[in-house]
Amino acid sequence: MAKVPRNFRLLEELEKGEKGIGDGSCSYGLEDGDDIMMSNWNGTIIGPGHTVHENRIYSLKITCGQNYPDSPPQVQFLSRVNLPFVNQINGKVDPLNLAVLASWSRNSSIETVLVEIRKSFLIGLIREMASINNRKLPQPPEGSMF
């Protein structure tokens, strides 16, 4: 099977992101419409109901390097959040502690990353989040940023 070139793949993702994902709880798009390399993206996740994240809006920065989609994007929360896979100093997501990034495949996408992060809020797919105590980690005040 032929490999789709990086920019064609990113154009497909941009088109999909502009249409919205499912119920609208996650969205993404280019940071700058003039970014011809399509490297810098913004993402938004709305926290799921019945969790400490309910109705919170989390902003993220996603960077697709030259080797994307063969290599995962770099993901960084701009909004403060207390999750085991997020560095509490700079908001960067540790790719080894987030399953979707640790087991990255060319079939994964920006959408996959955002949806899996949102799921981790809810069901604790990451080992550290498996206990009830960690699912209720106290969160920084809403609206605080890294």
How much strand?
15-25%
Mean pLDDT: 87
Number of strands: 4
The strand order across the widest sheet is 1-2-3-4
Please state the CA-atom Rg, rounded to the nearest Å: 15 Å
Main beta sheet: 4 strands, antiparallel
Question: Could you tell me how far the N terminus lies from the C terminus, measured between alpha carbons in angstroms?
Answer: 42 Å
Which of globular, elongated, flat, extended, rod-shaped describes the shape?
globular
Helix-residue proportion: 10-25%
Q: What is the H/E string?
A: HEEEEHHH
Low-confidence spans: pLDDT under 50, at least 5 residues? 124-132
Query: Which structural category fits the helices and strands?
Result: alpha+beta
Our count of helices gives 4
Structural descriptors:
about 150 residues, four-stranded antiparallel β-sheet, about 25% helix, globular
Which helices and strands, and how do they pair?
Layout: H1 6-19, E1 26-30, E2 40-46, E3 57-63, E4 74-77, H2 99-102, H3 110-123, H4 132-135
3D architecture notes:
With 146 residues, this protein is α+β, with helices and mostly antiparallel strands. 25% of the residues lie in helices and 16% in strands. It is built from four helices and four strands, in the order H-E-E-E-E-H-H-H. A four-stranded antiparallel β-sheet has the order 1-2-3-4. Mean pLDDT is 87; it is low at 124-132.
